[in-house]
Amino acid sequence: MCMNNSVTLKDIAKALNLSISTISKSLNDSYEISVDTKQKVLAYAQKHHYSPNRLAKGLKEGKSRSIGIVVCSLDNNVIAQMLDGIDTVSADNSYQIIIMQSKESQKQEAACIELLYSGGVDGILISPACETVDFSYLRSLQESGLPIVLFDRLSDQIDTHKVGADNFQGAYDATMHLIKNGYKNIAHLNTNTTLSIATERLNGYKQALMDSEITYRPELLRSCDYSDTQKLNSDLREAILYFMSLPDKPDAIFTATDQISTRCLTLLNKLGYHIPTDIALIGFTNTDLAEALSPALSTVHQPAFEMGQLAAKKLISLIESKVHDQEYETVMLETYIQARASTQSKD
């Protein structure tokens, strides 16, 4: 059954035999209107699913009450959980969200931002594309008064609020977990990007090796092209075959991203390797399927929902702030290791 939700102020006024002005004032909790009238109006409005015209309200307030979000891809557990966090806070503060994906292309990212800006969003939350090296376009929009907050993937090229995970510590903990479980030849699979997310995870891995007096071997580091799924799959396959053909081959792999982690497990199984007997595996991923994979996958879990919530709060505080020279903050949330069968101790 289709329900007509488009009841207007005029409809409510007619039904209750009151003026449109009285209805409007009642809904805005005006002191001029009696409690009885307000309750009657509110009850009718709720029963008939009345929702005020957001655009008209926005024009009156000088705001559209909408937030633009640009992410690399929606096909990603971490991103989906972050968006859920963003949506919760936005809805609680009466903002609607408009989500766009860059598909890891700097050109597409710029097109998304331009579209959101021309559409009149009040602010933008962005997790930059792998390709993005130039932030001048974002900076110029920021200088023109558009609030911008970076989340998940952070950069020093723009001064604003930034919310991410502690990638260095997450990578350090994952590598140390493997070392403590008896693995010494640890390979690392990362992305071919200059974004801090990749360098921090690489540095965390290197630091754990150094602190454990294990020599870093450059041949155990491979980068994958993130531009499309097909390329990522072929790069991963090539990297695994390369690792396993080395005279001193790795006994474990630490993977740096959501897609790499789950795809790596699938490929190792397809290629006939037994995990963790032939090679152990741990990676950054928030997939709910980690427990159900064969074998269950050890993961570095990111507080993605909380990251989204905090990023949205930071952006809304910028949108609604009367102070223009706010002190910006970079917040790094803690990750934690979920140990499962794929990194079982060698002992």
TrEMBL record:
Domain HTH lacI-type: 7-61
SMART domains for this protein: HTH_LACI (SM00354)
Domain of life: Bacteria
InterPro entries according to UniProt: HTH_LacI, LacI/GalR-like_sensor, Lambda_DNA-bd_dom_sf, Peripla_BP_I
Keyword Amino-acid biosynthesis: no
A Pfam family it matches: LacI
Gene3D superfamilies: 3.40.50.2300, lambda repressor-like DNA-binding domains
Protein keywords: DNA-binding, Transcription, Transcription regulation
The keyword Endoplasmic reticulum appears for this protein: no
One Gene Ontology MF term: transcription cis-regulatory region binding
PANTHER family recorded: HTH-TYPE TRANSCRIPTIONAL REGULATOR GALS (PTHR30146:SF109), LACI-RELATED TRANSCRIPTIONAL REPRESSOR (PTHR30146)
Protein name per the record: LacI family transcriptional regulator
Record organism: Pedobacter ginsengisoli
